[in-house]
Request: fold
Amino acid sequence: MLKYLSIPIATISLAVAAQLMIQLPEEVSVVPITGQSLAILLIMELMLWRNGLIAVALYLLLGGLGLPMFADFASGWDVVSGVAMGYFIGFLLAILLFSRQADKSKAMSKVSLRLLLATILILLCGWLGLLKFLEPLEAFKKGILPYLPGALIKMVLAFIIIGLYRRFRGLMRQVEV
Reply:
């Protein structure tokens, strides 16, 4: 039964993570720092790739249709197609490109590499999306630089959570025997 709940749980978790935000001044950044990328990293590593992709697509669809899913309870297609568009595309691509490897390789050294590559991909897509609104250097200054410290913290947190989850799951399997 829990496997059927994983998609709505992941979608809701992503919406909750969007509310964990730090609004930076407009001269520093055009989108807030949120917990979304941490949620994406966890979805990427802990869910089957198809379920993760469905959960993220559902999050974007529901938010685009008007449910208050995005940072600061924002919603609508103007949010999806606005300054955060590139990051949203990066979320989908991270799940699509790296979840399949997570399904195959559980080694923690591979996990850390996937977390790093997914984070770089999300930031790069965010930067590319901002080019619709800003000059390249300004998009880099407002779309990547302010997020680097938080990205590092989120990667470390994801790594720790994934490790703890695997240990707990392993212990629970031993108890069931």
Q: What stands out?
A: The CA atoms of residues 37 and 128 lie 17 Å apart. The beta strands are 21-22, 33-34.
